[in-house]
């Protein structure tokens, strides 16, 4: 009886302490029924479904409570610049730090994110990008050949997700972290195996919802990964990319101890490898389940293959591939679902494109979810659930950039890479990597679905908000080198 009274008192206290009223100038507020927790469970289970439900109820802007925090969700792409361009009132770093701490147990008190970003731009754009692209291409070629020796005559069967993710992860790891070394500690396959386990815990780690048993496993996998990454970038001759070596040096200059450096390296592994493999999977999957799209992309590739010489790697950055680009853009429209989250560090009036104004409270978070709009918005895209490889092509074959909502041309018609100062630094590298990979697979191999009528697998709904989506299950394919009929 006493326990029940105490519980009731606690619930009442939490209701009083966390009660918040909406003022007239603020977005519609939806606290949910459960004190403190609010909508956290529904949000975490399937964010796209939940946000769609809230959109039906409140419109393009609303504030929800989730695990004690108030999050304002904005869904009008015409108004996104008001968030993206205001880094004074809306801060990128604070929420990124919360995630860093939850996922990687990483705190970098003396870190200058601007220096790390400038370093990254130096290495992932311009002349250095070309070097990275060709190193990546070389690793991809070697790894693909190792999967299927040229004299192999029989089909090899594999899940497409595993095939794409493992190859791209290993090639990316060798290009940026592991170098040519071949001792056990830097074996890309063992890093991939551990990373995959870690990846499985990622969303729960970010939300702080791991159960005790899961937490134990997740922490031991993380420890193992930190051991495997210990030598990466440590010395100039560690075999890793110059970027990683400079990144480590920057951390050292900031007074960061070695254990913390490793955690920062793991975070970079996640940022650079976590999305590319899944994106390549969805693209190949959509091509294989849409014969017309596959034919169009293969036709474009075969024209390029004719220009190839033994010295040039396929898919030099300067080659134009509008059909492939459209097929990729369409893939990302359907499967890139990041939250663009900022913390309100000073009160701000948000001016919406339709003339409405809303007050954002200091301490709240603001979240854009471009997956719902523009990407899946039926007002912008006819039959938005369907894969149409040529959606981003004009009739004359040029790139289509004109998309409209409410009669006005959109600046942001897809946003897989974020936007503005905190947009993706690795975008060009990622696109080129995916293009090289898909080119090599489609040009050098016969690839087909094991079940010719197979459909794309469902989406794992718990991953909405965390970049590229991942499938529930896999799509079985078979493949063999092309010259062995
Ligand atoms: C398909 C692959 C990729 C996708 C879909 C993707 C997506 C994104 C998105 C949406 C953001 C913005 C987050 C925000 O505004 O809150 C971002 C940021 C970032 N991405 Fe990527 N990314 C990919 C690949 C890569 C690669 C290969 C690298 C590195 C080589 C990379 C490095 C970064 C970094 C460093 C940032 C943070 C920028 C900052 O601090 O301001 N990404 N990415």
UniProtKB/TrEMBL annotation:
Heme binds at residue 424. InterPro entries: Cyt_P450, Cyt_P450_CYP7A1-type, Cyt_P450_E_grp-IV, Cyt_P450_sf. Residues 1-18 form the signal peptide. Its EC number is 4.2.1.152, 5.3.99.4. Substrate binds at residues 102, 108, 275, 365. It is found in: Endoplasmic reticulum membrane. Its cofactor is heme. Keywords: Endoplasmic reticulum, Fatty acid biosynthesis, Fatty acid metabolism, Heme, Iron, Isomerase, Lipid biosynthesis, Lipid metabolism, Lyase, Membrane, Metal-binding, Prostaglandin biosynthesis, Prostaglandin metabolism, Signal, Transmembrane, Transmembrane helix. GO terms for biological process: prostaglandin biosynthetic process. It catalyses: prostaglandin H2 = prostaglandin I2; a hydroperoxyeicosatetraenoate = an oxoeicosatetraenoate + H2O. It is a single-pass membrane protein. One of its GO terms (cellular component) is endoplasmic reticulum membrane. Gene3D superfamilies: Cytochrome P450. It comes from the Eukaryota. Belongs to the cytochrome P450 family. Catalyzes the biosynthesis and metabolism of eicosanoids. Catalyzes the isomerization of prostaglandin H2 to prostacyclin (= prostaglandin I2), a potent mediator of vasodilation and inhibitor of platelet aggregation. Additionally, displays dehydratase activity, toward hydroperoxyeicosatetraenoates (HPETEs), especially toward (15S)-hydroperoxy-(5Z,8Z,11Z,13E)-eicosatetraenoate (15(S)-HPETE). This is Prostacyclin synthase. It comes from Stegastes partitus. The lineage of its organism: Eukaryota, Metazoa, Chordata, Craniata, Vertebrata.
């Amino acid at each position: 009886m006493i326990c029940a009274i105490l519980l009731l008192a606690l619930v009442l206290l939490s209701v009083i302490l966390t009660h918040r009223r909406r003022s007239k100038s603020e977005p519609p507020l939806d606290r949910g029924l459960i004190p403190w927790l609010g909508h956290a469970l529904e949000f975490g289970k399937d964010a796209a479904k939940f946000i769609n439900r809230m959109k039906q109820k409140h419109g393009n802007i609303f504030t929800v409570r989730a695990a004690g925090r108030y999050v304002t969700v904005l869904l009008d792409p015409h108004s996104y610049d008001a968030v993206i361009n205001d880094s004074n009132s809306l801060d990128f770093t604070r929420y990124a730090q919360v995630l860093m701490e939850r996922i990687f147990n990483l705190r970098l008190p003396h870190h200058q994110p601007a220096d790390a970003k400038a370093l990254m731009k130096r290495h992932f754009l311009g002349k250095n990008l070309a070097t990275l692209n060709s190193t990546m291409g070389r690793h991809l070629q070697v790894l693909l050949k190792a999967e299927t020796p040229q004299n192999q005559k029989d089909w090899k069967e594999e899940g497409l997700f595993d095939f794409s993710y493992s190859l791209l992860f290993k090639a990316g790891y060798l290009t940026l972290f592991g170098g040519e070394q071949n001792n056990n500690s830097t074996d890309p396959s063992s890093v991939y195996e551990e990373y995959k386990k870690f990846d499985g815990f990622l969303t729960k780690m970010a939300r702080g919802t791991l159960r005790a048993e899961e937490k134990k496993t997740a922490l031991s996998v993380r420890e193992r990964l930190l051991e495997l990454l210990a030598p990466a970038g440590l010395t100039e001759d560690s075999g890793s990319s110059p970027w990683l070596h400079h990144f480590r040096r920057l951390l050292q200059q900031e007074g960061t101890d070695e254990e913390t450096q490793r955690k920062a390296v793991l975070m970079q592994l996640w940022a650079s490898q976590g999305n590319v493999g899944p994106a390549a999977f969805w693209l190949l999957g959509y091509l294989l389940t849409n014969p017309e799209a596959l034919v169009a992309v293969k036709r474009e590739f075969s024209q390029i293959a004719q220009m190839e010489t033994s010295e040039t790697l396929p898919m030099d950055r300067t080659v134009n591939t509008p059909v492939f680009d459209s097929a990729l853009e369409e893939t990302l429209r359907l499967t890139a679902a990041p939250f663009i989250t900022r913390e309100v560090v000073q009160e701000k009036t948000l001016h919406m494109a339709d003339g409405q104004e809303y007050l954002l409270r200091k301490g709240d978070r603001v979240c854009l979810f471009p997956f719902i709009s523009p990407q899946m918005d039926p007002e912008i895209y006819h039959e938005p659930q369907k894969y149409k490889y040529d959606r981003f092509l004009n009739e004359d074959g040029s790139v289509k950039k004109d998309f409209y909502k409410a009669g006005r041309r959109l600046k942001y018609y897809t946003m897989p890479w974020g936007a503005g100062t905190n947009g993706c630094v690795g975008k060009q590298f990622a696109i080129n990597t995916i293009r090289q990979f898909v080119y090599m697979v489609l040009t050098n191999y016969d690839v087909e679905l094991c079940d010719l009528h197979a459909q794309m697998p469902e989406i794992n709904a718990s991953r909405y908000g965390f970049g590229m989506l991942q499938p529930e299950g896999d799509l079985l394919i078979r493949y063999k080198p092309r010259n062995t009929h």
